[in-house]
Design a protein that fits this description.
single chain, globular, disordered C terminus
């Protein structure tokens, strides 16, 4: 009797989970908009870092953080898909606008990274995270991305540009990272 109760409980939980995540309509508009804004932010950062590396080579922290940006976009895509939303491709990759945004020196690119990480943290704190309240899966991924920005990416950019760095940084790609010019 006990195994059948566990099986029944598992089916009820699985059924309610799949029904809950079947439609984009289960999320308020503000939460859907927050997911799309976060994904656009990840795509923008990935495209900028790719443009920086096109100009300066595979230099840290850009070479480490771009991998994190791709992982973050994938995580957002999974949450979006669970709610019936389409993630879409990164249309900024390889764009002339991204190439034109790259400054003349690597130190300047790192300084842009610092500014972007500060702005990114504020975007998450003031706009994106408040819009996700009541949706634990959305809040969890947005919180992780916000924390990676502040705790991993910001210090890496500060090291590479703010303290006599040569663009090689000291970030070794550990953990999740996030940057936004």
């Amino acid at each position: 009797m006990r195994p059948s109760l566990l099986l029944l409980a598992g089916l009820v939980i699985a059924g309610s989970t799949s029904a809950h995540h079947a439609s984009a309509m289960d999320l308020p508009t503000a939460t859907r908009d927050a997911l799309y804004a976060a994904l656009a932010d990840e795509h923008h950062a990935e495209a900028f870092y790719a443009a920086v590396m096109d100009k300066f080579g595979e230099v840290r922290p850009f070479s480490n953080i771009i991998i994190a940006e791709q992982r973050h976009a994938s995580q957002l895509g999974e949450v979006m898909e669970a709610h019936g939303l389409q993630a879409g491709a990164n249309v900024d990759l390889g764009s002339e606008a991204m190439r034109a945004a790259v400054p003349d020196t690597l130190a300047e690119a790192c300084a842009l990274g610092v500014e972007a990480e500060l702005a990114n943290r504020d975007l998450y704190d003031k706009v994106l995270l408040p819009a996700s309240l009541g949706h634990d899966d959305v809040t969890a991924v947005l919180t992780a991305l916000r924390d990676a920005s502040e705790n991993n990416h910001l210090p890496a950019f500060q090291r590479c540009g703010g303290q006599g760095g040569n663009g090689q940084g000291m970030g070794h790609g550990a953990g999740m990272q996030h940057g936004k010019p």
